[in-house]
Design brief:
Layout (H helix, E strand, L loop, with lengths): L5 H11 L20 E7 L1 H17 L3 E6 L3 H10 L4 E4 L5 H9 L4 E15 L7 E3 H9 L16 E5 L4 H11 L15 E3 L2 H10 L3 E6 L8 E2 L1 E3 L11 H5 L6 E9 L4 H10 L2 H9 L12
Parallel strand pairs: 1-2, 1-3, 5-10, 6-7, 6-8
Antiparallel strand pairs: 3-11, 4-8, 4-9, 4-11
Helix pairs in contact: 1-2
């Protein structure tokens, strides 16, 4: 599966944003092909490559529409949506109640669209003999309670913990679902020595280089340079590897939706774009990039 390198992402972004300043009236009806509509799209780094692929395809077919896509994390996307500097926020977590309240104070209610599905893959270096872990074991690793791979049946090596940064929706999801095991009463946090990295690609690169490392990433970013761990909810449950099939049949224990949010109900070109993203044509791109579509897509 091919992925955009940072240089390619930058090139595509420059092309997508070449139309100049954002047009706040992007929901008006287009007057033929001479009219220009502009959609500003920002947020989740998990979604950024997929959002770039969608935008590039849509612009090829609709040259009257310009779409700017940037990452920065789900939290960054929600902040930008609330303050009115973007039209659509990408997110790998649900919007928080306090973020909804801030949006309402600014005169709108965020509208949620589930645009893809994903699994969080727990990954290690291929040299690591560990292939299976329970969620509790992963939780104890990231809380700092397990510090050496030999405690899990591996070699006598220190465990190096890797995580996305705190503005990442993937970071928040992993904290709530894995470290706290879904308990709202649990206030556990990442071990203080966890290394925070700014991108999904950064975690893949570090795990592939470091035989002591453990990390987590969206399924669409996992490469052959790392090894995915089969996870079980408890010690008595089957160990399941993440895949499109195990996400769809709900076997894999840490899968999630991926979202887009708009400032109220979308209209005009925004609505047309969201509707297209939920079409079979756009959902086929979801599959191509290693994520899981939200509607059935025929494979050739």
């Amino acid at each position: 599966m091919k992925r955009n390198t940072p240089g390619i992402i930058l090139t595509i972004f420059l092309f997508l944003s070449a139309c100049g300043p954002r047009n706040p009236q992007n929901n008006t009806q287009l007057e033929g092909r001479s009219a220009q509509a502009y959609i500003e799209n920002k947020g989740s780094d998990t979604l950024v490559n997929l959002a770039l692929a969608w935008a590039e395809k849509y612009q090829n077919d609709h040259p009257e529409v310009q779409i700017s896509v940037t990452g920065g994390g789900s939290g960054t996307g929600f902040t930008a949506l609330i303050n009115g500097s973007i039209d659509v926020a990408n997110a790998s977590r649900e919007i928080k109640p306090e973020e909804i309240e801030e949006a309402k104070k600014n005169g709108f209610e965020p509208i949620e669209f589930i645009v893809a599905n994903d699994a969080i893959a727990v990954i290690v270096n291929p040299e690591n003999p560990i292939s299976e872990l329970t969620l509790e074991q992963v939780s104890r690793i990231y809380k700092g309670e397990l510090t050496n791979w030999k405690e899990l049946g591996g070699e006598d090596r220190p465990i190096v913990r890797l995580s996305r940064e705190t503005n990442s929706g993937t970071h928040v999801y992993f904290l709530e679902t894995v470290i706290r095991l879904g308990s709202k009463e649990d206030k556990a946090i990442f071990s203080a020595d966890t290394l925070l990295l700014p991108s999904s690609e950064g975690i893949i690169a570090e795990v592939s280089d470091n035989p002591n490392a453990i990390g987590y990433d969206g399924l669409g970013y996992v490469t052959k340079e790392v090894k995915m761990i089969a996870l079980a909810e408890t010690a008595g449950d089957p160990y399941i590897l993440p895949s499109a099939e195990t996400v769809i049949n709900k076997q894999y224990p840490i899968s999630r939706h991926l979202y887009m949010y708009t400032r109220g109900q979308p209209e005009g070109v925004e609505k047309e774009y969201i509707d297209w993203i939920l079409s079979p044509e756009a959902q086929a791109i979801v599959t191509e990039l290693g994520f899981v579509p939200v509607i059935p897509v025929e494979t050739p």
